[in-house]
Amino acid sequence: MNPLTLVKRIQNINKQESSFGISEDASWHANYKDSAYIYVGRIPSEFTEGDLAAIFAQFGEIVDVNLVRYKRTGKSKCFAFVAYEDQRSTILAVDNLNGAQISGRTIRVDHVTDYKKLEEEKD
Predict the structure, then answer these.
(1) Cβ atoms within 10 Å of 62's Cβ, excluding its own
(2) Which domain holds residue 54?
(3) Which residue ranges does the record assign to the RRM domain (predicted)?
(4) Which of 16, 36, 66, 98 would bridge 109 by S-S if both were Cys, CB 3.0 to 4.6 A apart?
């Protein structure tokens, strides 16, 4: 599925919940209450972990930024996983940054279930 289609789908769900006055417990966000990680896609290739931390820190304390890179070249694969100290910050990040324009790109921000950071492979 086109990443921009997913961005619009999340925006529409949020708009519908807001217009119907859906409670926090009944929100689609409640499905992710046990995960403090979010997925960030369509990141500009020149971005670093520090760039992501600077942008996403406005919604809470960041405890991990995993910018996924190609093993051989070390170049960004243009997506990352960001963890917050408090899961409630994930809701703010998803609601406020999904569909945002960053360096001319529309980023996708979504919740993640069961994310486990992989240990670095030894050379």
Answers:
(1) 20
(2) 3-13+34-111
(3) 36-114
(4) 98
